[in-house]
Amino acid sequence: MGKEAIRRVNKVSFDMPADTQAGIHNRWHPDIPFAGTIKNGETVKIECMDWTGGQIGNNDSADDIRNVDLTKVHYLSGPFEIEGAKPGDLLLVEIMDVQPFEDRPWGFTGIFDKSNGGGFLDEMYPSAAKAIWDFEGIFCTSRHIPHVKFPGLIHPGILGCAPSAEVLATWNKREGDLIAANRLEDREVALPPNPTNVHAGVASADLKAKIGAEGARTIPGRPEHGGNCDIKNLSRGSKVYLPVHVDGAKFSVGDLHFSQGDGEISFCGAIEMAGVITINFSVIPNGVADLGLKSPIYIPGPVEPQFSPGRTIYFEGFSVDHNGKQHYMDVNVAYREACLRAIEYLRRFGYNDYQSYLLLGCAPIQGHVAGIVDIPNACVTLSLQDELFDFDILPAAFPHKKLDMGNCAFESGVSMGRVVEGSGKNSEVSFGGGMTYKEGGKEGGEKEETVGEKAANLVLGSSVV
C-alpha cells in the first residue's frame, strides 16, 4: 500500500434500481456469478448501497419506512473471487476504512411497522417511524432527535463467503424445521427460500430461477459463515476470519452502518448508509481445520469512541417481562426490559417513546449479559452515555426541566406512533428463548416432509437419500 492507488472493484448507482445492477445480489447461493476478482493480499475499495437499495429518502415522512418492500432488501456487493481461496481455507478480511459517499453524507434509522418487518419492541411500539442523521466528519446529528451529537463507530453489518451446496442445504433444512414447528401464529420465526424479487447479479434467467428456489435469505447471520451479524465493533482496523466453502470464496459485503447500539433493536436500528468500504484480503490455507473453527472469529480494531465511565448510566433488565410474568433465564426478555427502562428514563427530558427507541438502536450504547446462572432470572444491562446529550442526564442533576424535543418522522397524517401498554400480557411463550415445538406428522404415523426437508432436497437434488 502507498505506492499506487487502491483499486475500486465495483460501482453502484442510485440512478437505477438496485435489482438491475450487475455486481449486486440479495441471496446466499454458491452459484451466483462472480462480480469481480481480487488478488490474495490485495487491498481494494468496494462500493455499497444502503441495505434497502435506496428505498428510504432524506425527508420528514416515514411513509417510505411503512411501505418498504422487504423482498427488495439486503443488496450486497459481490460475490468477489479471491484468487487461490479453496474450501477449508480461512479468508482474513481486514477492514481498513469505511466512509459514506461524498454526495450522500446522511443516513437513516427506522422503526418498522409491526405488520411489515417489526422490531425488538414492536409489541409495545407497532408504528413506523424514522430519523434522518446528518454526518459531520466523525459526528452525527439529527433534526428528528435534537440535543444529541455523537461520533460513529462505522462498520459493515454484513460480510461473509458463499455457502457450499451442502451448507446451504443445512441452512434450509434447520430453518424450515423451525418454521414448521413454531407455535407463534402471529410471528415469522425464519424466512424460507423465496423467488420473489430475487437478484443474482448477471445470472441467466434459468440460474436466477434456481437461486430463487434454493437461495438463503440474507436477513439472519448463520454460524457457518457469519453474514448479517450486525457487530458494531467490526470497524476500521478490525480483522475477521471467515470460513471458505467454495472455490474463490465468493465474498460479499453490504449493509453499512455509521453507528449502531448493541442489538440494533428497532430492526432498522443502526444509522443505515451507503458508502465505500476498503478491505485487505488474505487467504490462510487449511485455516478452518488448523484453528478448529465452527464459526467466524474477529479481532476488533483500535478505533472506537471513548466515553467517561463515570458519566454512563446502566439500566438493568431481568427475565420478568413488563407485565410481571416470570420467564426462565430468558436473556431476550431481560434485554427488552432494560431497553424499556431506558426509554422510560428518557421521557423525563421530553423525548417521546419513539424518539428514544430510535436513539437506543443507533447510538453507541452497550448491552452486556451480566448473569445467566441464577435461576430463574438472567440479568442484562444497557448503557446510556451522558456525553451523547448537550444537557446533563445523570441522576444527580435531577430535577430536570423538560425540553422541546420536536418529533421524529411518522407516516403522513400521523403525529405520534401508537403505544400498546398491555402488550404480551397473555403470551404463552417467550418472544425469544422460551419457544416450544408443536408435534408434527400426519395422522396414522405417516411422516410429512417438512419445509426444511423440501428446501434441502431442492439444493442437493439426487444426492439426498
Automatic annotation (TrEMBL):
What the entry lists under InterPro entries is as follows: FmdA_AmdA, FormamaseFmdA
Which Pfam families does the UniProt entry name for this protein?
Answer: FmdA_AmdA (PF03069)
Task: Name the Gene Ontology molecular function terms of this record.
Answer: hydrolase activity, acting on carbon-nitrogen (but not peptide) bonds, in linear amides
Annotated coiled-coil segments of the chain:
none
Entries under PANTHER family matching the protein: FORMAMIDASE C869.04-RELATED
Protein name, as recorded: Acetamidase/Formamidase
